[in-house]
Amino acid sequence: MKKTIAAILAGALCLTALTACGGSKTDSAAADSSSAAAGDDKTITVGATPTPHAEILNAAKDALKAEGYTLNVVEFTDYVQPNTALVDGDLDANYFQHTPYLNNFNKENGTDLAAAFDMHYEPFGIYAGKTASIEELKDGASIAIPNDGSNETRALLLLQDAGLIKLKDGIDPTSDATKLDITENPKNLDIQEIAAEQLPRSLADVDLAVINGNYALQADLNAAEDSLITENPDYAKVYVNVVACRSGEENSDKIQALKKALQSDDVKKYVDETYKGAVVTVF
After folding, report:
1. Helix and strand totals (H; E) in the chain
2. Per residue in 12-28, pLDDT tens?
3. From CA 245, how far away is CA 116, in angstroms rounded?
4. Please, which residues bridge with residue 4 across strands?
5. CA 228, CA 121: separation in Å to the nearest integer?
6. Backbone φ, ψ for residue 206 (5° rounding)
7. Can you name the residues that pair with 193 across neighbouring β-strands?
8. Measuring CA to CA, how many Å separate 43 from each of 64, 70, 149, 234?
9. Residues 150-183 pLDDT 10s
10. pTM of the model as a whole
11. Among positive and negative, which fits the CA dihedral 174, 281, 235, 229?
């Protein structure tokens, strides 16, 4: 049975990471990733994870075409390479990450990528694996969570809101928490830190899993419909997904054209009808 957690958000919007271990571009992405570096003024090359980001970008292609631009979407299967490719100049922008992850990436890598504009948030959810509900969890049950900075923090806070653990004082969405910050674990839960993209596949092997919104969608899971518990919307909004670019290019013609197309009524309608609450626009 789905619940909605009423969580009170303390702190400001920052980041510690959104995901991922290694991964690679799709074959088509590898073939098409050079247009930004080639300096094609009428081609906008954007890196994205497949669902929902690449799908949303594709929904904006016609609007960009009407403005004289060709949109080239390069799909990535992880959360690391899209930023690396943007730094290297292989992309004009990327669309896959929330603000805290972007901030953390810049901090850890000495980069200067910028959030060009906000698009949406994806509520985190706790999903049933071998155990059907939170109430049925037994002593020593296993729970899989993402292993990267901000997303691990986010998952641990959701487990705390569900009454399963207690974290030390001062842990909020701006923190970089791990399971070492758990101070109370009355059920002796086995918290397993797993690469975010592997979480849906882990469901068969663990009792519960806390899964990122995009990876849940790729596994045909909808946080609004399938999760046992979802984040309170005010909490989830801290993790707004952004279109990112290199610092200083936020007002370039390409980025402004991309913003106009993506923040259109047609794209908003597409998101609302396609994702049914698992992806929520903020424009």
Report:
1. 13, 14
2. 333 333 333 333 344 33
3. 6
4. 230
5. 19
6. -125, 170
7. 145
8. 10, 5, 34, 36
9. 789 999 999 999 999 999 999 887 788 999 999 9
10. 0.75
11. negative
